[in-house]
Specification:
Keywords: Coiled coil. The protein is built from nine helices and no strands. By secondary structure, the protein is mostly helical. The longest helix has about 170 residues, at about 180-355.
Length: about 625
């Protein structure tokens, strides 16, 4: 039974929790957690359950008191709102009443102004009627009126009560005058009565005005006090309302923050899981990329090593080629000297043979020895010829490469030449256009200047003629000296005006001439810039001519190299045919081979020269 009671209490508290404000929710949660903990205990712990029930009843009572206080505060707040609305309505009514009173004051002030103006008019009228008149006789016209200025009326716009009193006494005395008619006296009596009525009205209006002012001041003070009280109440209510709203907003913010945090936790969990999956994928990709990068680095290092090796081999080959060329040149020079010595020896030997035909028997043995030596020498020469053929093939390959390079350079030079020709044509066309434009501009400027000069000369001649005519007229007028000074002055003024106008025109024409001269100077400066362009074009032409000369020289060098190459091929073929003939013929072939070697050495030198020239 007690467990059922606790369950009912828990359910009731859960239902109450919806009504209880959010301030007490954490306490209820704590207490609920304690109750749930104690549910797990055995039924023997009845005392603890009773204590928990007492605590629950105490908390429920406290919560009910808090709810009652909050309901009371809400009722007070509603009452305050109603009173504020009433006070606002009263304020609106008071403002309307103040506006109506202000309108009445304005109307009363206008009436006062009208009354004062009427009083002033009456006073002025009375003052005008009471002016002292002279002794009336039959010859004086009494129907005429006396002139009165408006300034005199304005002077009496603001009068003291003493002046008003004096005016009234004066009017009373005027009524007693004997020469007045009864109508005048009645009119003066009406005026005096009207003045008294107006004074009475003014006094009444002043008293009413003072009363209304006092009432307005009292109402303003009263309403100001009420407004201050209402403002104070509004401030208190607004502060309470603000606190309440702030607490509600804080509670709502906390709830929203809790919800957001829960959502964020869920989203973070999802993102964390997704990120873990992505991280695994990225790590796999990174590992793959690292392996690929390592392989690429290895390949690049291997390629770099291969390139380094190739460079080293190329450098080594270049060095070997240079050494071989040097050694070959040295060998060629040595063979040259050796063959020259041998030629000299052979010529000496022939002379000795001619001289020593008598001792032919003795020389046979030496001849056999010499034949053996010649065979050995022939073998050596054939080996050297084979070596030279191999070197010639290498030279031919290098020559082919150099020829290809030269042909490419020739093509590039041709393209550059065409481009330079195009640019030269463009510059020449632009130069021709500029010359035409400058010539046309100069011609137009010259024509304009000539026109201006003609116009100026015509104007100057006209002005000179006019001046001469004017001087003639002046001299004629001076000689005649007739009484027509006005006409002469007029003519003089006209001539002076014409003279001034002519001076102005001359000044304007001088300004036009200055502008024309400045324009001519600008055109001359432009012509100087055109001359600089012409100089640049001439420089380009010379540069183009030099390139053409270089191109022609390269073509001549290539033609000479081709001829030498053809001659070298013919010489090599002749050597192959002559290698199988007799000893005497071998001596001639050796001479021819020497000549060919000399020619080839000259050709190699020319090749080097052409290469350096290129």
């Amino acid at each position: 039974m007690e467990m059922k009671k606790t369950d009912n209490l828990i359910t009731g508290l859960k239902d109450r929790q919806k009504v209880v404000p959010s301030v007490w929710t954490p306490l209820l949660k704590i207490w609920m957690s304690d109750l749930l903990k104690f549910e797990s205990l055995s039924l023997s712990d009845e005392q603890l359950l009773k204590e928990q029930l007492d605590c629950a009843h105490a908390t429920i009572a406290e919560l009910q008191n808090a709810l009652n206080t909050q309901t009371m505060r809400s009722d007070d707040n509603t009452q305050l709102l109603k009173t504020i609305a009433r006070q606002q309505e009263q304020l609106i009514k008071v403002n309307k009443r103040c506006e109506s009173l202000e309108m009445e004051l304005a109307n009363s002030q206008e009436r006062n102004d009208l009354l004062e103006f009427q009083i002033l008019e009456l006073q002025e009228f009375s003052a005008g009627r009471t002016t002292p008149t002279p002794f009336i006789t039959a010859s004086v016209e009494t129907d005429k009126y006396v002139d009165i200025d408006d300034c005199d009326i304005i002077a009496y716009a603001k009068m003291d009560p003493q002046t008003v009193f004096k005016a009234k006494n004066h009017l009373r005395e005027m009524r007693r005058l004997a020469y007045l008619t009864e109508d005048d006296r009645e009119f003066l009596a009406i005026v005096l009565q009207h003045m008294e009525n107006l004074e009475n009205k003014i006094t009444l209006l002043e008293t009413e005005q003072n009363m209304t002012r006092c009432e307005l001041k009292r109402l303003e003070l009263q309403k100001q006090d009420e407004i201050d009280e209402l403002k104070r109440q509004l401030d208190e209510f607004s502060s309470k309302d603000k606190k309440k709203k702030a607490l509600q907003q804080e509670n709502e913010k906390l709830k929203k923050q809790i919800q957001k945090q829960e959502k964020l936790q869920e989203e973070l969990r999802k993102k964390f899981q997704a990120n873990e999956i992505l991280i695994k994928e990225k790590n796999d990709k990174i590992s793959q990329l690292e392996n690929e990068i390592k392989n690429a680095y290895r390949c690049s290092e291997e390629k770099e090593n291969e390139l380094k090796r190739a460079k080293m081999q190329i450098e080594h080959l270049q060095r070997q080629i240079e050494e071989i060329t040097k050694n070959h040149l040295a060998d060629l020079e040595a063979t040259k000297k050796h063959f020259e010595d041998r030629l000299k020896e052979s010529f000496n030997f022939k002379n000795d043979l001619d001289k020593m035909r008598i001792a032919y028997d003795k020389v046979k043995e030496e001849k056999a020895q010499l034949e053996q030596k010649l065979q050995t020498f022939q073998k050596q020469s054939q080996e050297k010829i084979q070596k030279l053929d191999e070197e010639l093939q290498n030279v031919r390959s290098a020559f082919d490469e150099e020829r290809r390079r030269l042909e490419e350079e020739i093509k590039k030079a041709k393209t550059k030449n065409t481009e330079l020709e195009k640019s030269n044509r463009e510059y020449s066309n632009a130069y021709a256009k500029m010359e035409k434009e400058i010539a046309e501009a100069l011609r137009k400027e010259k024509e304009n200047n000539e026109k201006l000069r003609k116009e100026l000369n015509d104007e100057n001649e006209k002005l000179k003629k006019q001046l001469a005519e004017a001087y003639v007229e002046m001299e004629d007028l001076r000689s005649q000296i007739r009484p027509i000074g006005t006409q002469l002055e007029r003519r003089y003024e006209e001539m002076r005006y014409r003279w001034d106008e002519s001076l102005k025109k001359i000044h304007n024409f001088e300004n036009l001439l200055k502008t024309a001269n400045e324009r001519i100077e600008e055109l001359e400066a432009k012509s100087k810039s055109v001359e600089s362009y012409v100089q640049e074009i001439e420089q380009l032409k010379t540069y183009n001519h030099e390139l053409e000369e270089q191109f022609n020289a390269q073509m001549d060098i290539i033609a000479a190299l081709k001829k030498k190459f053809i001659q070298m091929n013919g010489a090599n073929n002749n050597k192959d045919h002559n290698s199988s003939e007799s000893v005497g013929w071998t001596s001639n072939s050796t001479v021819n081979s020497l000549d060919d070697e000399v020619y080839s050495s000259e050709g190699s030198g020319s090749f080097k020269e052409s290469r350096n020239h290129a």
